[in-house]
Amino acid sequence: MDSKVRAVLFDVDGTLADTERDGHRPAFNAAFQELGLDWEWDVDLYGRLLEITGGKERILHFMEHHVPEELNRSELGEWIARLHKIKTRHYVGMLESGGIPLRPGVARLIRHLRDRNIKIAIATTTTPENVTALLKSTLGEDSPGWFDVIGAGDIVPGKKPAPDIYHWVLDQLKLPAKQCIAVEDSENGLRASLAAGLDTVVTVNGYTRFQDFTGAKLVLSDLGEPTKPFSVLEGEAGVANGINGSGWVDMDLMLKLKG
């Protein structure tokens, strides 16, 4: 094993799977309906709300800007937490039904890293229940155990773009950032990983395609498969290392990114 890359840290929502538009968004709407709220987050509105990291924080932001009269609820924080818990139940149910597949190249890369004895970790602000449900529904019941560290939910005070979750995961791994690579999908995620000192590969999705990814080593359409290669969208490392065509992310490519 080359010491240049000893671990890969994955974000979850939008990175491992396209969970936002067709997972979290309808789960929020189902929770609103269950509580008798006449709120509905359509695709465009939810895209704007994604600028706010964290589900409970997103609900509060929506209330502040769209239904400020609802802020008068007693014990507002507890009410938002209850609403978010209902949303999580709906979301986990969707995952357990197999409705949300992994993005191209994700399963292949995870198995490839395990075969190479590279540590793998999760660094996300979504709840642990969401992470476990996604992994089990797509990679198998034992797959959460494949990860050396799962950093999820409210275990740190600052949500992305704060680097707190990455600092926590690196501390648990007992590895310096220079020996790791992060995989993200959004500008907020990239800002967090860069602030933690991590070289970062970004795989965009429909919501994040036009965000600012300055500082990323490589910006790709997805992680790629041998039968369906990725497309390079941005990143100086792509040009510098001859990765300006198409391919798939593996250890050889990650070592090129490390120079």
Automatic annotation (TrEMBL):
<dbReference type="InterPro" id="IPR023214">
    <property type="entry name" value="HAD_sf"/>
</dbReference>
<dbReference type="InterPro" id="IPR044999">
    <property type="entry name" value="CbbY-like"/>
</dbReference>
<dbReference type="Pfam" id="PF00702">
    <property type="entry name" value="Hydrolase"/>
</dbReference>
<protein>
    <submittedName>
        <fullName>HAD-superfamily hydrolase subfamily IA, variant 3</fullName>
    </submittedName>
</protein>
<dbReference type="InterPro" id="IPR023198">
    <property type="entry name" value="PGP-like_dom2"/>
</dbReference>
<dbReference type="InterPro" id="IPR006439">
    <property type="entry name" value="HAD-SF_hydro_IA"/>
</dbReference>
<dbReference type="GO" id="GO:0016787">
    <property type="term" value="F:hydrolase activity"/>
</dbReference>
<dbReference type="InterPro" id="IPR036412">
    <property type="entry name" value="HAD-like_sf"/>
</dbReference>
<keyword id="KW-0378">Hydrolase</keyword>
